[in-house]
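All the exercises in this workshop are built on plain-text protein records. Instead of coordinates, the fold is spelled out as a row of discrete tokens. Once this layout is familiar, the rest of the handout is easier to follow. The record below serves as our worked example for the rest of this section.
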Amino acid sequence: MIIDELIKKIKETGNPSVIGIDTAPEYLPNYEKVKDDPRALAESTIEFNARIIDKIKRIVPAVKVQIAYYEACGLLGMTVFSETLKFAKNSGLLVIADAKRNDIGATAKQYAQAFSQGDFDSDFLTVNGYLGSDGIKPFLGKDDKGIFALVKTSNPSGGELQDLRLDNGLVVYEQMAKLVSNWGADCIGEYGYSNVGAVVGATYPEQARQLRLLMPHTFFLVPGYGAQGGGAKGAVAGFDANGGGGIVNSSRGIICAYKQDKYKGMDYATAAYNASVDMREDLMGALIK
């Protein structure tokens, strides 16, 4: 099961964090020099991503690559997305493609194929389950592939839909949690977690604790730490009693660390490495307490 591989990597590195390689053009140190040359911009982005991945590959278990940053740059951007996924996998990291895909069954099948082989091959894919089971089933059934379905997101307006109460007494995110748990019931690995995980934001720790009780076999991908305002205690609120069951994402806080006063004077890859170490210590400190 791919979830077992992720848990093993977390144990090996002692680090329940995933680094978001979500590189907007303006994050590049040489952006002003290359911004008007699409090919030079693409080449600089590949180099930027590769240097960061190479620097952090021994201290983090996985990277998450958000497709939107690459789609925005057109065909060359999608080449950068593909090359980044491949470089990370070849570096021994597990890869989460953050694309939040979903549609009706036939189209979902195409999305599932796109991210399970070829240019965009990934270990995990984020999906949106709000079209129901027929939009999720095409992503299931492979032991070496997993998904993270949106359940309780970290953005401030998520509650406009996710917190609405249904006729059965549950709120929408609780109902989604039940669905996600059911979707993953047939693919539980040796550590007791399923290949079907859930996205549960760090900015809602009380809901995360509640969801852990509702979803004891569901692994959490936790956005919202750092730049989005979530702290370490909130980020690990949904972890299990043994300090496992989740992985916390940070993107800008790592890849743009070289812009922070704390890492002033470091090159961007070294700053990313040090910020990753600091994040690990922050999360582990919150788990111990």
